[in-house]
Amino acid sequence: MDILEIAGLLLLVLGLVLIAWIALRRTLLVRSGAIDLCWRDRLDDDGRGWYLGLAKFEGADLQLFRSFSPLPWPNRSLDRVTLSLGDRRIPAGAELDLLPRGAVIIRCTDGAGEFELGMTDAALTGLSSWLESTPPGSRFRRNDVREL
């Protein structure tokens, strides 16, 4: 075997290991209760910029993971306290090809600005329930409470 064959074989093995790692990561996320969810930060009218991924409710955060990323940590984390849901719409144009069939898109805001989430109706119901189920008083910070 010459050096090119060894390098090619090493690249092939590395590629297979990477694919196996991504598949294992997705399986572990789904088994831990993650849901399919797409998001985009760029709100252009062309319907581009969507990230395909998974979302996992973790305490007071909604953690967003990209589907094809090998990283074990979330790519974005949304805080329950600052997250608010806005207008809802159906996919249009190029979004019909990018998002799963039957997806709805909801415009959201948090401390970092506006973005959109694409998910099924059932996932949107779960997200709304998670936001509304905040324990009483947890949306108030200590400095926001006025003494009577």
The computed structural class is: alpha+beta
**Amino-to-carboxy terminus distance:** 82 Å
Indicate the low-confidence ranges by residue numbers.
Answer: 140-148
**CATH H-tier superfamily:** Pleckstrin-homology domain (PH domain)/Phosphotyrosine-binding domain (PTB)
The CATH architecture is Roll
The major beta sheet can be summarized as:
7 strands, antiparallel
Radius of gyration: 20 Å
> What's the rounded overall pLDDT mean?
84
Number of strands: 7
Our count of domains comes out at: 1
Task: Give the overall form.
Answer: globular
Helix segment tally: 3
Q: What is the CATH topology assignment?
A: PH-domain like
**Proportion of residues in β-strands:** 25-35%
CATH class: Mainly Beta
Estimate percent helicity.
25-40%
Sequence of secondary-structure elements: HEEEEEHEEH
Strand order of the largest sheet: 4-3-2-1-7-6-5
Protein architecture, described:
It contains three helices and seven strands. With 148 residues, it is α+β, with helices and mostly antiparallel strands. The protein has a single domain, classed as Pleckstrin-homology domain (PH domain)/Phosphotyrosine-binding domain (PTB) (PH-domain like, Roll).
Topology of helices and strands:
Blueprint: H1 3-31, E1 35-40, E2 51-58, E3 61-66, E4 76-79, E5 84-89, H2 95-98, E6 104-110, E7 113-119, H3 121-132
Antiparallel strand pairs: 1-2, 1-7, 2-3, 3-4, 5-6, 6-7
